[in-house]
Design brief:
Elements lengths: L4 H17 L2 H6 L8 H7 L3 E9 L5 E11 L2 E4 L6 H8 L2 E9 L2 E8 L11 H4 L2
Antiparallel strand pairs: 1-2, 1-4, 2-3, 4-5
Length: 130
């Protein structure tokens, strides 16, 4: 597990806020005893995680596709070709959603803004080793 204490603290705050704002239907399905805490989730997400990534087309249609994801420092990271349609969508409309669903035992869905990562940057040396 590569998460630092501050990464796990931030992730736990996000998980707590997400559960606090969840609708009644989700709360009925996701019973408290089945919800991993930040450290447990980071443990479950080690290695490559197949994600279904949703981007938005120019005319506002959602479109999904598989990407290889890595959970690192409390967040999902993924790659694709800079020339891909997917990255074209992200450059224009960086809001994305992604789901890791290895089976009925675990579903992790995230929503946010995709941010490019400069792999050559010195502060990403640890990430390059993954």
């Amino acid at each position: 597990m590569l998460e630092r204490p501050e990464d796990l603290d931030a992730l736990q705050r996000t998980l707590d806020e997400s559960y606090r704002n969840a609708g009644e239907h989700l709360k009925q399905i996701h019973e408290p005893q089945r919800r991993p805490d930040a450290a447990g989730l980071a443990q479950l997400l080690q290695g490559m995680c197949l994600l279904t990534l949703a981007t938005v087309t120019r005319d506002g249609r959602p479109i999904t596709g598989p990407v290889d994801g890595i959970f690192y420092r409390g967040a999902f990271h993924f790659g694709s070709s800079p020339e891909s349609v997917r990255f074209g969508h992200i450059r224009q409309r960086p809001e994305v959603s992604a789901t890791h669903l290895p089976g009925e035992h675990l579903a992790v869905t995230v929503h946010g803004t995709a941010q490019p990562l400069d792999l050559a940057a010195e502060d990403h040396a640890e990430f390059r080793q993954l």
